[in-house]
């Protein structure tokens, strides 16, 4: 029973497999809409894929693939040599560049090709190319130009025994509808159909190309008279040859119809196998393009981000809610940056204990001075800004007007009116500059006194300057003295905590009680003004370190001159005696009075003004220290010299700079 079944089974298999064989053999005609059942002889890397697609070559380089009809076709000259064939092919590029030889339909006496080279489309080699003994007719579909065969790019050619085409033309088709030729890209991955018709009577070979769904064009691409009997032998094989070059591409045949005894039937396009999805390197190519795009976009974003970030960083400010009420006084850092040409060193007009001062020009052409104060603490900033702004409302011809402020991280910028002549100390001490005559000096002293009086009494609250000195007196266009930096010392006062008290001021201008208690009063301002008067009159700094020992402290030296009855010796030698003696004596004696060690003994600024204006007579000043009191106690010296670590001072000793003294608390 089992054997019967087995032999029945065997019979069935034999029967089924013999059908296409018989059909093709008898008729010399066949049609394959897909190659699943095809009777083909394959070699090289050609293979029939599971879906019936004939793959002649894949993406391997320098490979050949052949697919020939198994059986020879009778091309006997006794009968007609006419034949007709058409097939659908696809050339799928796999690389960024096109390339890789092509496909040829061939009529050949042999279906096996040995010693063949890939650049000869899998049909010839160097030694037999061009020999009439080849008996090969080929229609080549060649996407690349090969100079050795004198051909052109993307062309269809008729080859007889030789890869140098008898005739060739760029890939194109005649559109029956549009009545014109339309060019085609062979290696586009799009399936196309090729018709090859030979008529024995006309001895004409027609080759017609068209996209897959386009009906056969009325006009062939190539039409060439050929005497086929000169080429073919009686028994010939028909099929395809394809090869890949250094740049590989996939070559496919989707369907094929051949007829030796009439017009080849049209292929059923709908039944043809589909091409594999365009993946592999094509996908890779898209991935590569995307990757490039993403990298470029990310880079662009990063650059824009960085530019934006640095621009923001460059002009970054600190702005808090409470500042909204000072809106009109708030300058943007950007505007200051532009006004001072980016805080160029060339624009620096002063450098003191609080920081550098830059000249700037606003877009309105208004000249400003910008003081950059480094200040890390956020503590007390609110109060300080409030105070600074309210002081900005102080209007007096001997005060430098504060226009506004700006805050950045660790930095406070104060904007003032620009004073063209700079600070007084530069006139007093700088060699080479024209020095000031007595009239100007006396005028400046009276102006500063009036400004200070205004601070002390002319405002709804008492404003203590805390840092009167020649360096803080600026000269306007008319050489009037104007006080600047008032209230700035408070910035450091706000840095208080329970442990330490930070006192700001300048050595030589600080009253003893200020260094002791750290408490600034109008009398400590008067003390500093006294030192300032002596400075202007004598042209010496309150503490002259380079001078001889007895001249170390100006006030002591002036008092010594006074007690010796030679007070005019203390006048500035640069004046060369050109001064009003009474005024000089008045200034020196008033300077001494204001420098009295006892705050209560000092006049207030209103009195000082009266003395300077001659509206009141100076009280008698004793000329012995026993009755007047000493100016400099040993304690002052201790403070000045023995505890240098307890205060911070500008690195330039020639500038009597602002110092901050840390006094241990508790
Ligand atoms: C191409 O086909 C050959 C033979 O089938 C195979 O060995 C090779 O791996 C294939 N190459 C690619 C890139 O698919
Ligand atoms: C080819 O066909 C001719 C005539 O039809 C015949 O005489 C010849 O024997 C055939 N040749 C082969 C190889 O079948
Ligand atoms: C060239 O091809 C022919 C035909 O296949 C073959 O007989 C011959 O040996 C080949 N020559 C070389 C040099 O490979
Ligand atoms: C070939 O094309 C020409 C037109 O160029 C046409 O007259 C001829 O009939 C065609 N021959 C075949 C066999 O298709
Ligand atoms: C075609 O070639 C054959 C064989 O070489 C020859 O006998 C015949 O005369 C040729 N026909 C034409 C039209 O050239
Ligand atoms: C071949 O041509 C004949 C005659 O026109 C036709 O009857 C037959 O169907 C064709 N066969 C194929 C496979 O094209």
UniProtKB/TrEMBL annotation:
Coiled coil: none annotated. It is found in: Cell membrane. InterPro entries: ConA-like_dom_sf, Kinase-like_dom_sf, L-type_Lectin-RKs, Legume_lectin_dom, Prot_kinase_dom, Protein_kinase_ATP_BS, Ser-Thr/Tyr_kinase_cat_dom, Ser/Thr_kinase_AS. GO terms for molecular function: ATP binding; carbohydrate binding; transmembrane receptor protein serine/threonine kinase activity. It is a single-pass type I membrane protein. Keywords: ATP-binding, Cell membrane, Glycoprotein, Kinase, Lectin, Membrane, Nucleotide-binding, Receptor, Serine/threonine-protein kinase, Signal, Transferase, Transmembrane, Transmembrane helix. The chain crosses the membrane at residues 287-310. ATP binds at residue 371. The keyword Glycosyltransferase does not apply. One of its GO terms (biological process) is defense response to oomycetes. This is non-specific serine/threonine protein kinase. Its EC number is 2.7.11.1. It comes from Juglans regia (English walnut). One of its GO terms (cellular component) is plasma membrane. Residues 343-612 form the Protein kinase domain. It holds the Pfam family PK_Tyr_Ser-Thr. Residues 1-24 form the signal peptide. Its main location: membrane. Belongs to the leguminous lectin family. In the C-terminal section; belongs to the protein kinase superfamily. Ser/Thr protein kinase family. It catalyses: L-threonyl-[protein] + ATP = O-phospho-L-threonyl-[protein] + ADP + H(+); L-seryl-[protein] + ATP = O-phospho-L-seryl-[protein] + ADP + H(+).
